[in-house]
Amino acid sequence: MRIFLDTNILLDVFLNRSGKPQSLQVLQACVEAGNEGWIAWHTISNGFYIVRRETKQLSEAKRFTSELLQWCEVSTVGTTAALEAQRMNLSDIEDAMQIAAASACQADVIVTRNTPDFAASSIPVMTPEEFVKQFSAPAPSQP
User: Which residues on neighbouring strands pair with residue 73, listed in sequence order?
Assistant: First the structure.
């Protein structure tokens, strides 16, 4: 399964935000056999900027980028995807760019904390909690 991650999911994990447990489970699903984690090209710069702003440390921003590129593939986009994002006519172009990047990599699902902003997506959109509930294996029963 191709799992497309919005920037906020990655920041939950890296910055230890309140949504970290579920977002970490989504990220773990991305590295399991048969699954692929995908991000938009601009997630790298957006995440770098936010991590540096929040931690006040360039080294942490660089670590974020390095780890991100170990966990996820980067969706290849160009003018066609940019025009697709523009045609969505969303109030936030960044969300439209995320949707276009997810489409370009043929994602099966988009995982984000702000699902209402992804209403224009033809790809299913889920919160981390919804993803974990739908795709996580049940915990083994105790003897």
Answer: 38
Q: How many CB atoms lie within 10 A of CB 74?
A: 16
Contacts made by residues 54-57, CB under 8 angstroms, sequence distance 24+: 54/15, 55/15
pLDDT by residue for the chain (143 residues), tens only, comes to 999 999 999 999 999 999 999 999 999 999 887 899 999 999 999 999 999 999 999 999 999 999 999 999 999 999 999 899 989 888 899 999 999 999 999 999 999 999 999 998 999 999 999 999 998 755 444 44
Q: Record the pTM.
A: 0.90
Alpha-carbon distance 143 to 132, whole Å?
Answer: 24
Contact 29, 131 (CB under 8 A): yes
Long-range contacts of 114-122 (CB under 8 A, 24+ apart): 114/6, 114/8, 117/90, 117/92, 118/6, 120/88, 120/90, 120/96
Distance, in Å, from the CA atom of 21 to the CA atom of 32, rounded to the nearest integer, reads 17
